[in-house]
Amino acid sequence: MKSRRLIVFAKLAQAGRVKTRLATTIGSDRALRVYRRLLAATLRLALRSPVERCEWRFDAAPGVLPASDAALLRRLANRGWIIAPQQGRDLGERMAQAIESGLEAGDAVVLIGADCPVFETADIGAAFDALKQSDAVFAPAEDGGYVLVGLSRPMPEIFEAMPWGSDQVMTQSLARLESSGASVTLLRRLWDVDIEADLARFEAGLGPRLPQIKREVRASETCSSTAGSGVSGSAS
Question: What's the whole-model pTM score?
Fold first, then answer.
């Protein structure tokens, strides 16, 4: 039986590099705080998911990592996570390289980003179950993209020359797989946080927990050990 490898494909929380579309309307500082919440929730999800291997393929600004980022990566590595930088010239190449490295290790591979606040561990389990019978699995996004992709064998055609960020990503991915004769499973349709309307939907769903979450994020911005322990403590 193949091991299940869940890849979190996400940038480190660095100002000016995350949630850039959202930042145009709410400012880069607030966008960074939103991203910190999304990233923390995604890491917690991965820690709870029914998988044998967790991996973070991170992207960061050139140069020395800030202490808080280095502490978080180190803490996850100490928990057995695979920590590696994204490699490739564009988004598609980086995603393909991450997935193919897991496939080469003999694993079933599912990749998620850090933009979807409504993932559940059941979604991750369903994706790996689908890969027992299908070549590919997707969780489509409401905006025409997808928030999860999993493969049981390399399929570089779904990552090459794709109009990333457009509403045609899911449609074109399915068309290419159909042309190649690959089998595909589609999971439930989800949504991600890209614009201010998405943020309002996200925060409305948090309800009474929102003030506490915001306090936790502010604390993590000033203490690297809080950033690391906040993630690891959520696994229980």
Answer: 0.88
